[in-house]
Amino acid sequence: MSLLEVSNLRVNFKTFGGTVKAVRGVSFNVDNGETVAIVGESGSGKSVTVQSIMGLIPSSAGNIEGGSIKFKGKELTQLTKKQMREIKGKQISMIFQDSMNSLNPTMQIGKQISEGIMYHQNVSKREAKAKAIKMIREVGISNVEKRYEQYPHEFSGGMRQRVMIAIALACNPDLLIADEPTTALDVTIQAQVLALLKEIKEKKDTSIILITHDLGVVAESAEQVIVMYGGMMVEKCSVQELFSNPNHPYTWGLLESIPNVYSNQKERLKPIEGSPPDLFSPPKGCPFAPRCKYAMNICMEEVPELYNVNDDHSSRCFLNDEMAPRIEEFSDTEELV
After folding, report:
1. Residue 91: how many CA atoms within 13 Å on its side-chain side?
2. What are the respective helix, strand and coil percentages of the chain, to the nearest 5?
3. What's the rounded Cα separation, in Å, for the pair 298 and 285?
4. What is the mean predicted confidence (pLDDT) over 193-210?
5. What pTM, to 2 d.p., does this model score?
């Protein structure tokens, strides 16, 4: 049994403009000690998916329309808020992408770490402080006694992100969710944060869900990859398969938009033309079809199933149907709608 099993997850948000179908039938598993990356552009449903796992969908605006989220065999969607509080921070923790807004600016860093320890582990203030200091040291922050007493504004962006990691790991969770953990950090600090996550995973055998739009981060940190577009999972495979044998046209577009540092020729990056789908009124067929140069008539009318490319690779594209034309038969100038 996998540590986490997400099956056919569907999440909607009610707005004045109508219902936003943010996540539409997402399914994946996370095994013990595994890092699964979820990639895709803004609005693809990445963050909403993991917020659903954490029970962070606001009931006033959104709801889990259907599907299942099982953690250690326990159905999370059926738990009360009190029952979820016992799991959040203790068994499942999350690192949010904006550390400045996620930390309390009026509370000392050390107290923000020790607060969760006291709540979940039923220890004294002295014991909680000792554990918090240990966590500050473990995430690579020096001069820990002084840092314990300081406030978020006295830390750099990279240091604040390390504090967020310390808070998330304070109670030794089985699953760590990192939502864009390197956003707004310079390249050097990004590398340090990713190296820290990798070290923590190896030491503690923690499973990680990594949300990112950076395929470089995926190549460095993950074993499995889920590519999302328009609220749907369009490709799922190992990291090796993603870069050596990408299958979905959207994935091809993502890879083509990355500069090739090994090429001696100056080449323009190839953006994906068009705009993401309107999730107030999702397209009838494949969500990527209006932007796909390989789109066929059926792509506009039906949502493709997840076809098995091989035992460890699936792709939501009609090009994998044995009745579909070969890619060589398509031309750049041909109208395919």
Report:
1. 15
2. 35, 25, 40
3. 8
4. 90
5. 0.91
